């Protein structure tokens, strides 16, 4: 069966609205767990105020943060899926849903030309919103995830070398989180995503996906990487900073690591922080037209993490 392009646009608009307003349950639970262990009075106050704000936003059906970030999409296409008018039409539907949601939700129109600062007033422009694609075998659905992530700070990159090893990774993570906290470059408590390996552009992509497309409590299937995720989360919460940079112990809600095979001579690493408004929502449009809404993107499937030539 062919998926209606109208259903694609409908789903894209709906997840734009949900992502802006509704905090995912996994992130709420992560924040509540941090609140129980937070040592600082001011960070505890901030976390309490955050939760009050989330409740008010949900009740009023308005965005929970005045800065609604930079909307972007991650699209997973089933290999057996067919869409009315093809995937150029899907891209157009995603751009139109962004423009419509900017007006209707409303979202703050954050997108401007980098040089002329011209603004279409709808979060759509050259290469905006970003759309990343992946594929899934033996499926006839199309799955769309939107993420509303801040576009200014909370990201860093470094080229490490193989000899730096795990200690080098820890040093980079601690240096970066301390700098973010001291300079106000992150909106914590945050999910921290780390991209390790690949080329520089792939490394940056993996880190952002790790921050934005995995839920709190999810662990990498490689047990040694999973162990490192937990260790880095513990380290991040031991540097003396809590919510919004106040003295405390609640900087990292969770840490996720994604890897890519890289050049023999290097070990590139990127770090990305999602913000305290972890804004993501997913819609799976089935071949029969049904739409399933979730907050777990399920982006990192075994197929996406495959190592071999054949699947």
Estimate the helix proportion, in percent: 25-40%
Q: What is the number of helical segments per DSSP (H or I, 4+ residues)?
A: 7
The protein's oligomeric status is single chain
Radius of gyration: 19 Å
Shape: globular
Unreliable stretches: none
**What is the CATH topology descriptor of the largest domain?**
Dihydrodipicolinate Reductase, domain 2
Distance between the termini: 25 Å
Structural class: alpha/beta
Percentage beta strand: 15-25%
Tally of structural domains? 2
Structure description:
It is a single chain. A hairpin with a 5-residue loop joins strand 10 and strand 11 (291-294). The protein is α/β, with parallel strands linked by helices. Helices cover 37% and strands 22% of the residues. Helix 1 (5-21) packs parallel to helix 4 (86-104) and helix 2 (25-37) runs antiparallel to helix 3. The mean pLDDT is 95. It folds into two domains: 2-22 and 64-150 and 279-294, 2-Layer Sandwich (Dihydrodipicolinate Reductase, domain 2); 151-273, no CATH class. It contains seven helices and eleven strands. The chain has a five-stranded mixed β-sheet, with helices on one face. It is globular.
Which tags fit this structure?
single chain, 311 residues, alpha/beta, Dihydrodipicolinate Reductase, domain 2, 2 domains, four-stranded mixed sheet, 11 strands, EC 4.2.1.32, Class-I_Fumarase/Tartrate_DH, L(+)-tartrate dehydratase subunit alpha, 4Fe-4S
């Amino acid at each position: 069966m062919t998926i209606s392009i109208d259903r694609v646009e409908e789903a894209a608009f709906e997840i734009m609205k949900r992502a802006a307003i509704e905090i995912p349950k996994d992130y709420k639970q992560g924040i509540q767990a941090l609140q129980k262990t937070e040592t600082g009075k001011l960070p505890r106050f901030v976390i309490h105020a955050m939760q009050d704000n989330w409740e008010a936003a949900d009740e009023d059906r308005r965005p929970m943060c005045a800065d609604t970030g930079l909307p972007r999409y991650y699209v997973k296409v089933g290999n057996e899926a067919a869409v009315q008018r093809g995937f150029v039409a899907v891209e157009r539907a995603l751009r139109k849903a962004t423009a419509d949601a900017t007006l209707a939700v409303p979202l703050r129109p954050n997108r401007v030309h980098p040089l002329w600062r011209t603004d279409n007033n709808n979060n759509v422009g050259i290469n905006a919103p970003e759309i990343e694609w992946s594929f899934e075998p033996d499926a006839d659905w199309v799955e769309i995830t939107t993420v509303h992530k801040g576009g200014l700070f909370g990201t860093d990159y470094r080229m490490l070398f193989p000899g730096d090893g795990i200690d080098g990774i820890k040093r980079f993570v601690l240096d970066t989180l301390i700098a973010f906290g001291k300079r106000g470059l992150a909106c914590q408590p945050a999910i921290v995503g780390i991209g390790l390996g690949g080329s520089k552009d792939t490394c940056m992509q993996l880190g952002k996906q790790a921050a934005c497309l995995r839920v709190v409590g999810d662990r990498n299937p490689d047990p040694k990487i999973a162990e490192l995720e937990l260790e880095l989360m513990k380290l991040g919460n031991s540097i003396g900073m809590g919510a919004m940079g106040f003295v405390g112990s609640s900087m990292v809600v969770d840490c996720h690591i994604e890897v890519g095979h890289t050049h023999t001579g290097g070990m590139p690493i990127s770090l990305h922080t999602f913000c305290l408004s972890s804004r993501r929502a997913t819609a799976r449009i089935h071949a029969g037209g049904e739409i399933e809404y979730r907050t777990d993107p399920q982006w990192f499937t075994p197929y996406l993490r495959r190592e071999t030539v054949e699947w």
